[in-house]
Amino acid sequence: xxxxxxxxxxxxxxxxxxxxxxxxxxxxxxxxxxxxxxxxxxxxxxxxxxxxxxxxxxxxxxxxxxxxxxxxxxxxxxxxxxxxxxxxxxxxxxxxxxxxxxxxxxxxxxxxxxxxxx
Length: 118
Hints:
Blueprint (H helix, E strand, L loop, with lengths): L1 E15 L2 H7 L4 E4 L18 E3 L2 H8 L9 E16 L9 E11 L3 E4 L2
Parallel strand pairs: 3-5
Antiparallel strand pairs: 1-2, 1-4, 2-3, 4-5, 4-6
């Protein structure tokens, strides 16, 4: 299901590079809206937790200040951000896939936090 228009969301954005995540979902930059923002994600009667990966990953990574490579001592990075997204696509498959959206603008972002490896 494809949605047009834009929405402003606040939540956590992260890129995980641990082996398990890479095998399950690939090398993605994903966003999890929090609080009232989660209610703005167009999910209709879907009970899943709202989250999506950026369809324009390289552009999103640059705009959000994520490095091209993760230091070998870490398994990714995360930040809290307020972003404007558009072109939201809901993926309803029963598998390891995610919804996608295009990052249009970064309104605010916290400093990056390294995700330690387990």
